Amino acid sequence: MYNHTMTEFILFGLTQDPEQQKAIFGVFLILYLMTLMGNFLIMVTIKMSQTLGSPMYFFLFYLSFADACFSTTTAPRLIADALLQKKIITYNECMTQVFAVHFFGCMEIFVLILMAFDRYVAICKPLRYTAIMSQHICGVLVILAWIGSCIHSSAQIFLALRLPFCGPNVIDHYFCDLQPLLKLACMDTYVINLLVVSNSGAICTVSFIVLLISYIVILYSLRSHSAEGRRKALSTCTSHIIVVILFFGPCIFIYTWPPTTFPIDKMVSLFYTIGTPVLNPLIYTLRNAEVKHAMKKLWGNKV
Asked: Which residues form the G-protein coupled receptors family 1 profile domain (predicted)?
């Protein structure tokens, strides 16, 4: 007789080696603090700077917010578990983590699409840019992104709550997600896995294709711009393209596979849940002269 109402799981983590766990604690604590500091710095700079009031920086604020929250859904647990021998997570905490990971991950996808749309309008429809990307419309687009993220994560948690667990409770991962949970479910998960792929996998793949097409159109339209205009637009678009590739590459790898999971999955998940959020602030500040100038002016005055 098995218990079909599992009350807790054990996270396997990245490794069981004590020395490696100490290294994991130190490395990922530093990366997480860098993520929070970098994204917080960008958010405060955008809110307090008078020169960063364009829609692009309005969306960048929400991207930084999504990055900080997305990293927070997994990094603190990974850091704390590195000090524990037995990494226990309750059923409710596990389901909450599934919801949060997909909510803020989907939010980041939608904000990246909004940023690409903003660049498209700015470069391809410059005379109508102010009318199309008004403050009201930008606010509505962000609200729609929140609603879309909530719908997606609600679908994920609905699938997760339908899984019965009756055998081993060790999750071969460092956080709760549907793929590792499907391996523990005592039922045929083929249909549910198809739903996961058609939901998460489709969102990642379709969004990636849409973003690639939009940036191809943007880069093609730059032919008619001046040399200075091309240079500035290329600098901005290059930053966005780098972020898109770094984020969507691992996501597509994870969420478009069949039920089989691979040992490399955890390393790939690390890249998009912890690596990308810490890289985004560096990409958007080091490659953006306006953000760097605003930071120097704002924080120089504060000091």
From this structure: 38-284
Q: Which two tokens stand for residue 251?
A: 């996501």
Are 67 and 108 a contacting pair, CB within 8 Å? yes
Which pTM was predicted?
0.89
Cβ contact 163:182 at 8 Å:
yes
Q: Which long-range contacts (CB under 8 A, 24 or more apart) does 2-5 make?
A: 2/166, 2/167, 2/186, 3/166, 4/164, 4/165, 4/166, 4/186
Q: Residue 143: exposed, middle, or buried by beta-carbon count in 10 A (0-12, 13-18, 19+)?
A: exposed
In the chain, % of residues over pLDDT 70: 93
Q: Between 139 and 169, where is the model more confident? A: 139
Decide if 197 contacts 255 (C-beta within 8 A).
yes
Fold classification of 8-302 (topology level): Rhopdopsin 7-helix transmembrane proteins (1.20.1070)
